[in-house]
Structure formats: C-alpha cells, structure tokens
Specification:
It contains 13 helices and 17 strands. The mean pLDDT is 97. Bound molecules: pyridoxal-5'-phosphate (PLP).
Length: 399
C-alpha cells in the first residue's frame, strides 16, 4: 500500500492517518476523487491555494505552453512570464515593485529582510525590530516562525531570531506600546488565517497606518492567505482604505504551482541593492505563466463581485445552521470566501463526519472549522456543502 510507504519514507510532520486521509488522484473544479473513485466537494482548496478550483483550464494551458518553451532559466536572464506577471501585479496594486519567491514564508522572509535593510539605511544600524500580532501566522522558516505570534510553533526551535515583538491583534494601542527606537516595521495579516479566521477591524488597520506614519515605520501586510481575491477584492487591504508599504502573496497566486511575491512601494524597494537578496527558483517562468493566468482570471469583469455574492449566500446558509444548532455553531467569522466557524470543541468530529459524507473542510485546533472553497464555486455546490454540513451537525447533535 502506498500509505504504508508514506509512513516508511516521509518524515511524520503532517500526521496523516491512513484510515482517515484520502489519497487524491484527480481534481476538477470544486471536486476531487480518491483512489477508490469516491468524490468529494473540496472546501479546503489546497489550503487557499486552489482559488480557481482544481485543474483550471487557463492555468493548465499557460503552464503547458511555458513548459514547452523554457521551464527554467535562472535570474541571470530575462524571461517573459516573470516580467509579464510583475507588470500585472504592480499595475493592479498600489505597489511599485515586486520580488518573486517560491512560497509564502519566503515572501515574508524577503519582506523582513527588506524592512530591516530599509530601516538601517534610513535611520541607522539600530533599526531592525518588527512588531507582529499574537495569534498570527507568517511561515515556518526561522525568521517567519519567530514572526508568528504563537508559542506552539516556536517550541523546540529556540533560540529564535532576535528582533521581534508581539502585540494584540485588533488593538492598535498594544502595537503602539511596543514601539521603541529599534522598531522598523509592523507586520500583520488583514485576515488571520491559521490563527482561526480573525478579521482585522477597519479602525485597527487605519490606526496602524497612522502609527507607522508617525513613527516612520513600514507597514507590512501578509496577504499570503487572504490576498488574490479570497476576500472578494484582489487584495484584502482594499476593504480598509489602507495602503501598506510592503505586502506579500503566495498561496493562490500560482493556481496550484509554488510561487510567492513580495511587493512594495518604489521608495521602499530602494532598500535592496543588487546582491542583497535572491532566489534560484523565484520567478520561475512556468510558475509565473500560471500566475499570470490566475491574475487575469480574477480580474475578469464581474468575477470578484461574484465572490461577494457567493460569500453572502454561504454565510446566510451557515447562519441558518447556527439557528438550528446553536451549541455546535457558536460564531461565524470571515470575509469573502475565507470563513471560520467556531464550534465549541466539536470541530474534528464535524470535519470527520463531513468527509464521510463527501465534503472536505479544514479544522484549526479542536474548535474552528475553516471553509476555503474555490472562488468560482457554483451556488449548487455551496448548497450541496451546506446540506452535508447540516447532516453532520444533525448526527453530532443527537449523540
Ligand atoms: C500559509 C501562510 C504562510 C506560509 O506560506 P508557505 O507557502 O507555507 O511558506 C505565511 N503567511 C500566511 C498568512 C499564511 O497563511
């Protein structure tokens, strides 16, 4: 059995359980199939990666065509998709420049390095500290895991990287109280994803912007999960009327291929000089060609408005279930199509029951269910998912 080989050969960091974990062999749109031909509605979406569903034809076509021309060239040379993607991202955002990486953690790593370099160049060697939010998630490299404001991700990896301070999410005064002569930046997710789907308030992000202006700090938004249309706007910060100095993207950017991006203002981009930062695979032409197809699809007339409609539809369905099962659905949070359901300790069991009935949903800890359907999910698929969730809640309620 392939699953036995997984146990034998792969380091157990994901704790996949043979009896519980499907082996997926095919995907199409919102659906995936396991090795036994069982069909599932996929509301995990590769953890917010498959924003256009599985095997989205324009992404396949763009990647295939690039595969047949130049798969990789290195950043010693120009390639068309990299420049095309850079132009599309910069011209459709407030940013002036971009750096490409392979993942979210690396995009954040680039943001951290740029913030330090810019801080030191502008204000002296002593400027290097970054304030991040408690309950945040910024990645698993040593710097980004340190930036992550959750001790459970730190344990066993100490000493952590110096130069990070933590403050309470949605509490600008808490951030203000951590500012000191070493501070160079503030970094937050506009919607905390791994932390349990917590949405920043408008006042919070606007006050952080103000704080950064007053204290000459860079404002960094980690949009690795909430960016690329997930909240119903291309970037989550568009809901807030706040423009960051630096923001990062990854997950949904490549339509399933690994790519990350760190974007910043023209002014801040001057913090990096030739040789300061690099990535062998960063800006790989196949990943960039796929990402360009994603950006174009998200920007098609009316596409993001539909995300808002689908979000309203899904939220109202969840609210109906909350009325039926108030003990099992305590709270519904989120924006667009990143939604969190606070279950009161039953999340894993509900997740298991849903999977049994053909719906994949993600579970954060013991209490939170996270729904991340593709942005082009059909209303009939939202209905089918709600139906399955209702049956699962029903079964759980009578236990
Ligand atoms: C997933 C995630 C990351 C890390 O991305 P990787 O591609 O796994 O390195 C960073 N920040 C946020 C907000 C994320 O959701």
């Amino acid at each position: 059995m392939l699953q036995d080989d997984e146990k034998k050969y792969i380091i157990n960091t994901y704790n996949r359980q043979r009896e519980m974990t499907p082996l997926l062999v095919k995907g199409e749109g919102t659906r995936v199939w396991d090795e036994n031909g069982r069909e599932y509605l996929d509301f995990v979406g590769g953890l917010a990666v498959n924003a256009l569903g599985h095997c989205f034809p324009p992404v396949i076509e763009a990647a295939r065509r690039q595969m047949e021309t130049v798969i990789h060239a290195s950043n010693l040379y120009y390639t068309e998709p990299q420049i095309g993607l850079a132009q599309a991202l910069v011209e459709n955002s407030p940013a002036g420049k971009v750096f490409f990486s392979n993942s979210g953690a690396e995009a954040n790593e680039a943001a951290i390095k740029l913030a330090r370099k810019y801080g030191k160049l502008q204000f002296g060697e002593e400027r290097f500290e970054i304030i991040t939010a408690l309950n945040s998630f910024h990645g698993r490299t040593l710097a980004t895991v340190t930036a992550t404001g959750q001790t459970k991700f730190h344990r066993g990896f100490e000493p952590l990287i110096p130069g990070f301070k933590y403050a309470r999410f949605n509490d600008a005064d808490s951030f203000r109280s951590q500012v000191n002569p070493h501070t160079c930046a503030v970094m937050v997710e506009p919607v905390q994803g791994e932390g349990g789907v917590h949405v920043a308030t408008k006042e919070f992000l606007q006050e952080l912007r103000q704080l950064c202006h007053e204290e000459n700090l860079l404002l960094i938004f980690d949009e690795v999960q909430c960016g690329m249309g997930r909240t119903g706007k291309l970037f989550a910060f568009e809901h807030y009327n706040v423009i960051p100095d630096i923001f990062t993207l990854a997950k949904a950017l490549g339509g399933g291929l690994p790519i990350g991006a760190m974007l910043c203002s023209e002014e801040v981009s001057r913090g990096f000089s030739p040789g300061d930062h690099a990535s062998t695979f960063g800006g790989n032409p196949v990943a960039c060609a796929a990402a360009l197809a994603v950006v174009r699809s998200l920007l098609e007339e009316g596409f993001l408005d539909l995300v808002e409609q689908k979000s309203a539809f899904l939220i109202s369905g969840l609210e109906r279930l909350q009325k039926l099962f108030p003990a099992l659905i305590r709270e519904i949070r989120g924006k667009g199509l990143i939604l969190g359901v606070e279950t009161g300790g039953e999340a894993r069991e509900i997740q298991r029951l849903c999977q049994e009935k053909g719906l994949l949903i993600n579970c954060i800890g013991e209490t939170i269910l996270r729904l991340l359907p593709p942005l082009n999910v059909a209303e009939s698929e939202l209905n089918a998912a709600l139906k399955i969730l209702e049956t699962a809640l029903q079964e759980r309620a009578v236990k």
